[in-house]
Design a protein that fits this description.
This protein has about 575 residues and is of the alpha+beta class. The protein has 3 domains: about 100-200 and about 285-305, Immunoglobulin-like, CATH 2.60.40; about 210-275, no CATH class; about 340-560, Rossmann fold. Helices cover about 30% and strands about 25% of the residues. The chain has 15 helices and 25 strands. It has helices at about 1-25, 35-50, 60-65, 70-85, 195-205, 280, 310-315, 350-355, 370-380, 430-435, 460-480, 495-505, 505-520, 530-535, 545-560; strands at about 105-110, 120, 125-135, 145-155, 160, 165, 170-180, 185-195, 210-220, 225-230, 240, 250-255, 265-270, 295, 300-305, 330, 335-340, 360-365, 385, 400, 405-415, 425, 445-450, 485-490, 525. Strands 1, 2, 3, 4, 5, 6, 7, 8, 14 and 15 form a 10-stranded mixed beta sheet that branches. β23 (about 445-450), α11 (about 460-480) and β24 form a beta-alpha-beta unit. It is globular and about 75 Å long.
Length: about 575
């Protein structure tokens, strides 16, 4: 009797699971789900399927190496880049058993180390700060990997500088600052994430690239279906393959039940998977506790920077210590002052911007952080009239024209993955393909900002995308050497637990390091949004406040219209 009951119970369980899977697979015909419902159903489907599917579907190698097979040279570069960003993050076999054993900014401390002259600092010297991390029990940490930010600033002078943080891998960190202005200056050290939190973020990036998912609407006449899309999908059901023919960039959607793959209408963000971390891991991501919390000084947190002494100025044998940090610039009087490269001009009047952009075509490609530049410029220059392309708000494409001064300003989002609300499939273009369609020349400006939407994917995915863009940039510069190309780097943003798991500054910094390394030797200019947001006193935001954007636009325009060198008269 018991055997018969057990037998029927197994049959009933099998039929119930099969019924749920059948329901979930066919429920895609509903077109207008809200994101919360869509996300919940997708999570349920993923959980059910995960018990039947091999574990490698969530492994980063499955996703990262789709598309065209990389050459041996590409593989060597990829290995170099991955080593570059590997950092000293400890390979913890398991997280500490309690929060009390993890990095605590309240118990941690920093101290300003004496200068070569004792407790006296002069312009041109290097300031060194030693940081010691402790856990919540007040015990010193014995390993590194914490993600720290360092800033030196003088609010009354509108001055600020991002410091270089060196991890000594034993719980101690050094923060280094070149001293670039005189007067009182204050040191600020911030814990962004503990080393234990970074371990969780690294695992999510490598194993759960599906934690942001996408969807597409398919429609033919009165019939419509919505299915899940992503860069890689478990092939447990038929897929529509939208891999780009030119670059080999992969993109897939689950095939609709009743419609063909060529009836795809649009692309949209589907939602975010929840419950990706355990309750213990969630304690590592607490606002005001261990996400972007200041570390206090054990003594003074200020120094007075004096002018160079007469002896130092006059004597060729006495030189300041070599500056180990090469910052891209600093703020003074709330204006960004780049170090090396182009001199930044200030374009305070709209007429100055118009004069700079006259006879120029400016193409902006990327995410919403460069769309913010487009919006800022047209708001600043009344002569630039936005042409109504009937594009969705905040999505684009957008275009503005000043016919009197022959200025054309355009914005287009980059190809998938892009987490915008709804983008028509016909408007989904890869940046490299767009660059190949430009004639270029000295009156053509290309602005690129591609980073924020790649944070949930393995770094190999980002490397592959940048490699295609880099090749297109080289082709553009070969046929039109005078083309001006400007890259906007990643920037810091406000973080809480939810944002950290998808868009942490740690992810952004890793991508930023890759981007700089891959474009280092090319004839391109960089607007260093990372240091410009890190050095400023205003709160971090994904879309920086106007005071910072103004400096970014001034930097952009300074690359387009560099300061003319004065001719020395003999």
């Amino acid at each position: 009797m018991c055997r018969h009951i057990s037998k029927y119970a197994l049959i009933f369980l099998f039929l119930a699971v099969a019924g749920i899977i059948f329901l979930l697979r066919n429920i895609h015909t509903v077109e207008n789900w809200n994101c919360q419902t869509f996300s919940a159903l997708y999570q349920l489907q993923t959980r059910i399927q995960s018990s039947f599917l091999p574990t490698f579907y969530h492994n980063h190698t499955f996703c990262a190496h789709l598309g065209q097979k990389p050459s041996q040279e590409d593989e060597l570069e990829e290995r170099y880049l991955l080593d570059l960003i590997a950092g000293p993050v400890p390979l913890l076999r398991s997280l500490p058993t309690t929060l009390r054993q993890t990095s605590d900014p309240v118990h941690s401390l920093f101290a300003i180390l004496p200068s070569a002259a004792g407790r006296e600092w002069h312009l041109g010297d290097q300031l060194e700060v030693l940081v010691q991390m402790h856990d919540f029990q007040g015990r010193p940490k014995r390993y590194g990997g914490d993600f720290l930010l360092a800033r030196l600033h003088t609010p009354e002078l509108g001055a600020g500088l991002a410091g270089k943080v060196v991890d000594h891998k034993n719980g101690f960190f050094s923060a280094l600052f070149p001293l670039l202005w005189t007067g009182s200056a204050q040191v600020e050290i911030t814990l962004v994430h503990s080393s234990e939190a970074v371990t969780v973020l690294r695992r999510l990036r490598e194993e759960r690239s599906d934690r942001v998912f996408f969807k597409s609407l398919f429609r033919l006449g009165f019939l419509s279906e919505t299915t899940v899309c992503n860069m890689c999908l478990p092939p447990d059901q038929p897929l529509c393959n939208y891999t780009d023919l030119y670059t080999g960039e992969p993109w897939y959607c689950y095939k609709p039940k009743m419609l063909s793959c060529d009836t795809r209408i649009n692309h949209a963000k589907g939602g975010y998977l929840k419950h990706l971390i355990t309750n213990k891991e969630a304690l590592l991501f607490q606002s005001g506790v261990n996400i972007k919390v200041r570390i206090h000084a054990s003594g003074q947190d200020r120094i007075d920077v004096l002018p160079p002494t007469t002896e130092e100025v006059e004597s060729s044998s006495v030189k300041p210590e070599p500056i180990q940090l090469e910052p891209s610039g600093y703020y003074y009087e709330d204006s960004w002052r780049p170090l090396g490269g182009a001199t930044m001009r200030q374009f305070n009047e709209s007429s100055a911007i118009t004069q700079c952009l006259q006879n120029k075509v400016i193409h902006m490609y990327g995410d919403s952080t460069v769309r913010q530049w487009f919006e800022y410029i047209i708001a600043l220059v009344p002569e630039l009239k936005e042409f109504n392309l009937h594009s969705p708000k905040n999505v684009g494409p957008f275009m503005a024209v000043d016919s009197a001064h022959n200025i054309l300003l355009k914005y287009r989002c980059h190809g998938p993955p892009i987490r915008f609300s709804t983008v028509m499939s016909s408007e989904m273009r890869y940046v490299s393909n767009e660059l190949d369609g430009l004639p270029g020349g000295p009156n053509t400006v290309v602005v690129l900002s591609i980073w924020a939407h790649f944070s949930t994917f393995p770094v190999e995915v980002y490397i592959r995308r940048l490699r295609h863009i880099r090749r297109a940039v080289l082709r553009l510069l070969d046929r039109a050497p005078g083309t001006i190309i400007v890259i906007r780097s990643a920037n810091l943003q406000a973080l809480d637990q939810e944002v950290s798991l998808y868009n942490s500054d740690w992810y952004s910094l890793q991508l930023d390091m890759v981007l700089r390394a891959m474009f280092k030797s090319l004839n391109v200019q960089v607007v260093d949004a990372w240091q410009m947001t890190s050095a400023h006193h205003l709160p971090h935001a994904l879309h920086p406040p106007p005071a910072i954007v103004r400096n970014m636009i001034d930097m952009l325009l300074s690359y387009i219209c560099p300061e003319k060198k004065k001719v020395q008269q003999t």
